[in-house]
Amino acid sequence: MTVGAVLAAGGRGDRLGADVPKALVPLAGQTLVAHAWHALRDGGVTEVVVAAPAEHVAAIAALLPEARVVAGGATRTASVRRALASMPGEVDVVLVHDAARALAPASLVARVIAAVESGADAVVPVIAVIDTVKEVDTAGTVVRTVDRTALRAVQTPQGFRHQVLVRAHEAAGDADASDDAGLVEQLGVAVVTVPGSDDALKVTTRSDLILAEALLHERLNARGGVTR
User: Does domain 3-123+157-222 have CATH number 3.90.550.10?
Assistant: First the structure.
């Protein structure tokens, strides 16, 4: 099967305190979007379409000359939809990945691809929820403690059969969703899970960036200084 990926790189990075979009924030000599792109390619993706802020398309295209770079939309869902429209028709499996999860390992990418190739229509990597979770009302008062044993935190990359993802976006219209699996769920299509990775953290704040730097340093040491 031919595997493509949409790399969502439209985050503004306000909570990082950066003066560039989150995708262009440096991490150990490379940008977040470059780290994410390498992971996708190393994991088995052959076609990558990056959804970037319109004013930074040229900069990201220069960083990633082998990727297709398109201007994203006003929301994450709109950005993914625009990138999906530029995906080559011969692609059978499409992954959707967030540039903010820059250190998602290639092994995780390969695991998601393998699950779709084995017959799943939609796949999400997940990790167990370890914190106690409370449901609260609009006033912030606790309503109940939620049983966390069946709860999972969802990561990216998420994987889909190409036409299933296209149908999900067409059916959603202008609606926005926090992830693409949510759109597929609305079609009534089963979404299966695979084990996620602690390294696939989402870089949102400066603390996240510091943790990502530590993880990358540990990874580099394990590889004898090889960058990825």
Answer: yes
